[in-house]
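Not sure how to ask, but would you mind making up any protein sequence you like and the tokens describing how it folds?
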Amino acid sequence: MQSSEETTTTRPADAGAYPAPATTAHAAPAQSNGAAVEAEAKPKRTLAVSDAAVQAVRAQLAKRGTPEGAIRVGIRGGGCSGFSYVIEFDDKPPRSGDLVLEFAEPDKATVRVFCDKKSILYLGGSVLDWEKTLMYQGFKFKNPQEATRCGCGHSFTVA
């Protein structure tokens, strides 16, 4: 089985989002009959990354000594409410089926964000943001699919 590669341009989900110049989605092989046509008619699932988050990722990868690395975002079952967000460093190439977002700026390292195909079902339409306040500093998802979030803010349910 071979996987085809698509390149599309994404638009920010909100005004503060930093759009990816190119999104590479490694799609599954084409399906037979009308299923392939139906799958192509549906909008592609993606997520946006704010400019502040791109800068934070770039700084953290440089601090770690792996500016060519990436971060992997996703979800896992668990936590108070059912699902937990996951953000971790990834020094390997993207997996087959991963959504790959790349953010390039002149004279700066390209930032790459990977998301597996199962997680994008729950993260589609979300914005990954970097928040820095007196009480909190870190990445935060703005997920329109969240129905509720637990009190600690680390887990959520979907509608």
About this structure: The mean pLDDT is 77.
